[in-house]
Amino acid sequence: MTGFGDAGDAADIDADGVVAIIEGIGLLGTSPYIAVDIRPGRALDANLEILTGGTIDMGGLSAAVDVKLGTDGDPTDDTAVINPADFLDIAGWDLGLSYAFGDMAVNAVIDSSNDWGLSASMEIAGLGVDATVYNKATEEHKKNGLFYSVTASTSVDAFDLSLSVDQDLQPTFGLGYDLGGLNFYASYDAGDEGGAVGAKIAF
Q1: Which residues contact 13 (CB under 8 A, 6 or more apart)?
Q2: Which of 66, 98, 145, 162 could form a disulfide with 107 if both were Cys (CB 3.0 to 4.6 A apart)?
Q3: What pTM was computed for the model?
Q4: Calculated CA dihedral for residues 69, 70, 73, 76, nearest 10 degrees
Protein backbone atom coordinates (compact mmCIF):
# COMPACT_ATOMS: atom_id res chain seq x y z
CA MET A 1 0.00 0.00 0.00
CA THR A 2 1.21 3.47 -0.86
CA GLY A 3 1.36 5.73 2.21
CA PHE A 4 1.90 9.42 2.93
CA GLY A 5 4.36 10.51 5.56
CA ASP A 6 3.82 8.26 8.58
CA ALA A 7 0.40 7.04 7.40
CA GLY A 8 0.02 3.59 5.90
CA ASP A 9 2.88 1.75 7.63
CA ALA A 10 1.18 0.30 10.73
CA ALA A 11 0.71 -3.18 9.23
CA ASP A 12 4.02 -4.68 8.17
CA ILE A 13 6.06 -7.82 8.73
CA ASP A 14 9.44 -7.37 10.38
CA ALA A 15 10.88 -10.24 8.37
CA ASP A 16 14.15 -11.89 9.32
CA GLY A 17 13.72 -14.80 6.94
CA VAL A 18 11.82 -15.88 3.87
CA VAL A 19 8.28 -14.52 3.59
CA ALA A 20 5.70 -16.78 1.95
CA ILE A 21 2.95 -14.91 0.10
CA ILE A 22 -0.22 -16.51 -1.20
CA GLU A 23 -2.43 -14.42 -3.47
CA GLY A 24 -5.74 -15.19 -5.09
CA ILE A 25 -8.64 -13.77 -7.04
CA GLY A 26 -11.93 -13.43 -5.19
CA LEU A 27 -15.41 -12.29 -6.05
CA LEU A 28 -16.43 -8.84 -7.26
CA GLY A 29 -12.92 -7.74 -8.23
CA THR A 30 -11.27 -8.64 -4.94
CA SER A 31 -7.66 -9.84 -4.69
CA PRO A 32 -6.95 -11.30 -1.22
CA TYR A 33 -3.51 -12.32 0.05
CA ILE A 34 -1.76 -13.69 3.12
CA ALA A 35 1.95 -13.38 4.01
CA VAL A 36 3.88 -15.25 6.72
CA ASP A 37 7.51 -15.12 7.83
CA ILE A 38 8.57 -18.78 7.55
CA ARG A 39 12.08 -18.76 8.97
CA PRO A 40 12.90 -22.01 10.86
CA GLY A 41 11.30 -22.07 14.32
CA ARG A 42 9.05 -19.10 13.54
CA ALA A 43 5.87 -21.10 14.22
CA LEU A 44 6.82 -21.41 17.90
CA ASP A 45 8.07 -17.86 18.24
CA ALA A 46 6.17 -15.36 20.35
CA ASN A 47 6.71 -12.83 17.57
CA LEU A 48 4.88 -14.77 14.87
CA GLU A 49 3.51 -12.27 12.36
CA ILE A 50 0.90 -12.81 9.70
CA LEU A 51 -0.04 -10.11 7.23
CA THR A 52 -3.32 -10.45 5.38
CA GLY A 53 -5.65 -8.26 3.39
CA GLY A 54 -6.34 -7.49 -0.21
CA THR A 55 -7.70 -5.04 -2.73
CA ILE A 56 -11.08 -4.49 -4.32
CA ASP A 57 -11.75 -2.60 -7.52
CA MET A 58 -15.19 -1.19 -8.28
CA GLY A 59 -14.74 0.81 -11.44
CA GLY A 60 -13.05 4.09 -10.60
CA LEU A 61 -13.13 3.35 -6.86
CA SER A 62 -10.63 0.97 -5.30
CA ALA A 63 -9.75 0.05 -1.75
CA ALA A 64 -6.82 -1.77 -0.14
CA VAL A 65 -6.50 -3.08 3.39
CA ASP A 66 -3.55 -4.64 5.22
CA VAL A 67 -4.05 -6.32 8.60
CA LYS A 68 -1.22 -7.56 10.80
CA LEU A 69 -2.11 -10.53 13.02
CA GLY A 70 0.01 -11.95 15.79
CA THR A 71 1.79 -10.84 18.91
CA ASP A 72 4.40 -8.21 19.59
CA GLY A 73 6.68 -10.03 22.00
CA ASP A 74 10.37 -9.57 22.67
CA PRO A 75 12.17 -10.26 19.35
CA THR A 76 15.26 -11.47 21.29
CA ASP A 77 13.28 -14.13 23.15
CA ASP A 78 13.36 -17.27 20.97
CA THR A 79 11.99 -19.50 23.74
CA ALA A 80 8.65 -17.74 24.20
CA VAL A 81 5.55 -19.53 22.97
CA ILE A 82 2.45 -17.90 21.53
CA ASN A 83 -0.60 -17.69 23.73
CA PRO A 84 -3.38 -19.20 21.57
CA ALA A 85 -5.82 -16.64 22.95
CA ASP A 86 -3.68 -13.84 21.49
CA PHE A 87 -2.87 -15.51 18.19
CA LEU A 88 -5.56 -13.71 16.20
CA ASP A 89 -5.05 -10.33 17.85
CA ILE A 90 -4.88 -7.44 15.40
CA ALA A 91 -1.50 -5.78 15.90
CA GLY A 92 -2.02 -3.10 13.26
CA TRP A 93 -3.92 -2.19 10.11
CA ASP A 94 -3.76 0.14 7.11
CA LEU A 95 -6.65 1.24 4.92
CA GLY A 96 -6.31 3.00 1.59
CA LEU A 97 -8.97 4.36 -0.76
CA SER A 98 -8.54 5.81 -4.24
CA TYR A 99 -10.92 7.24 -6.80
CA ALA A 100 -10.06 8.19 -10.36
CA PHE A 101 -12.28 10.07 -12.78
CA GLY A 102 -11.06 11.53 -16.02
CA ASP A 103 -7.74 13.31 -15.49
CA MET A 104 -8.18 13.55 -11.71
CA ALA A 105 -7.34 11.06 -8.96
CA VAL A 106 -7.86 11.23 -5.18
CA ASN A 107 -6.20 8.97 -2.59
CA ALA A 108 -6.68 8.62 1.16
CA VAL A 109 -4.80 6.51 3.74
CA ILE A 110 -5.45 5.92 7.43
CA ASP A 111 -3.95 3.39 9.84
CA SER A 112 -4.32 2.02 13.35
CA SER A 113 -1.83 4.60 14.68
CA ASN A 114 -4.31 7.37 13.81
CA ASP A 115 -1.96 8.66 11.11
CA TRP A 116 -3.65 9.74 7.89
CA GLY A 117 -2.83 11.24 4.53
CA LEU A 118 -4.64 12.64 1.50
CA SER A 119 -3.46 13.31 -2.04
CA ALA A 120 -5.02 14.58 -5.23
CA SER A 121 -3.67 14.95 -8.73
CA MET A 122 -5.06 16.36 -11.94
CA GLU A 123 -3.90 17.35 -15.40
CA ILE A 124 -5.24 20.28 -17.40
CA ALA A 125 -3.91 21.26 -20.82
CA GLY A 126 -0.52 19.62 -20.22
CA LEU A 127 -0.11 21.03 -16.71
CA GLY A 128 -0.03 18.46 -13.92
CA VAL A 129 -0.86 19.45 -10.34
CA ASP A 130 -0.29 17.19 -7.32
CA ALA A 131 -1.25 18.04 -3.74
CA THR A 132 -0.50 16.00 -0.61
CA VAL A 133 -1.39 16.57 3.04
CA TYR A 134 -0.69 14.30 6.01
CA ASN A 135 -0.38 14.45 9.76
CA LYS A 136 2.73 13.52 11.69
CA ALA A 137 2.48 12.05 15.17
CA THR A 138 4.06 13.89 18.07
CA GLU A 139 7.64 12.76 18.70
CA GLU A 140 10.31 14.27 20.89
CA HIS A 141 12.77 16.55 19.07
CA LYS A 142 10.86 16.15 15.79
CA LYS A 143 8.53 18.47 13.98
CA ASN A 144 4.91 17.33 14.11
CA GLY A 145 1.47 18.44 12.97
CA LEU A 146 0.17 18.88 9.43
CA PHE A 147 2.49 18.65 6.47
CA TYR A 148 1.53 19.44 2.90
CA SER A 149 3.02 20.09 -0.49
CA VAL A 150 1.73 21.26 -3.86
CA THR A 151 3.60 20.46 -7.07
CA ALA A 152 2.98 21.75 -10.58
CA SER A 153 4.77 20.18 -13.52
CA THR A 154 4.73 20.40 -17.28
CA SER A 155 6.72 19.40 -20.33
CA VAL A 156 7.78 21.74 -23.13
CA ASP A 157 9.41 19.96 -26.05
CA ALA A 158 12.24 17.95 -24.43
CA PHE A 159 12.21 19.96 -21.21
CA ASP A 160 10.46 18.88 -17.97
CA LEU A 161 9.72 21.63 -15.49
CA SER A 162 8.40 21.37 -11.91
CA LEU A 163 7.78 23.65 -8.96
CA SER A 164 6.83 22.49 -5.45
CA VAL A 165 5.85 24.44 -2.34
CA ASP A 166 5.59 22.93 1.15
CA GLN A 167 3.89 23.98 4.40
CA ASP A 168 6.77 26.36 5.16
CA LEU A 169 6.30 28.02 1.75
CA GLN A 170 9.76 26.80 0.77
CA PRO A 171 9.92 26.20 -3.01
CA THR A 172 11.67 23.39 -4.82
CA PHE A 173 12.53 23.76 -8.49
CA GLY A 174 13.23 20.98 -10.95
CA LEU A 175 14.42 21.00 -14.55
CA GLY A 176 15.06 18.06 -16.84
CA TYR A 177 16.14 17.74 -20.46
CA ASP A 178 15.75 14.50 -22.40
CA LEU A 179 18.28 14.00 -25.17
CA GLY A 180 17.37 10.56 -26.43
CA GLY A 181 18.70 8.07 -23.89
CA LEU A 182 20.57 10.79 -22.01
CA ASN A 183 18.63 12.82 -19.46
CA PHE A 184 20.09 15.92 -17.81
CA TYR A 185 18.52 17.21 -14.59
CA ALA A 186 18.92 20.03 -12.11
CA SER A 187 17.05 20.84 -8.91
CA TYR A 188 17.13 23.34 -6.06
CA ASP A 189 15.45 23.03 -2.65
CA ALA A 190 15.13 26.35 -0.82
CA GLY A 191 14.40 24.55 2.46
CA ASP A 192 17.67 22.61 2.30
CA GLU A 193 19.47 25.56 0.72
CA GLY A 194 21.00 23.27 -1.86
CA GLY A 195 20.38 21.38 -5.05
CA ALA A 196 21.72 18.81 -7.48
CA VAL A 197 22.86 18.64 -11.08
CA GLY A 198 23.47 15.43 -12.98
CA ALA A 199 22.73 13.16 -15.92
CA LYS A 200 21.20 9.71 -16.37
CA ILE A 201 21.80 7.28 -19.23
CA ALA A 202 19.12 4.79 -20.25
CA PHE A 203 20.08 1.67 -22.24
Answers
A1: 19, 35, 37, 49, 51, 68
A2: 98
A3: 0.69
A4: -100
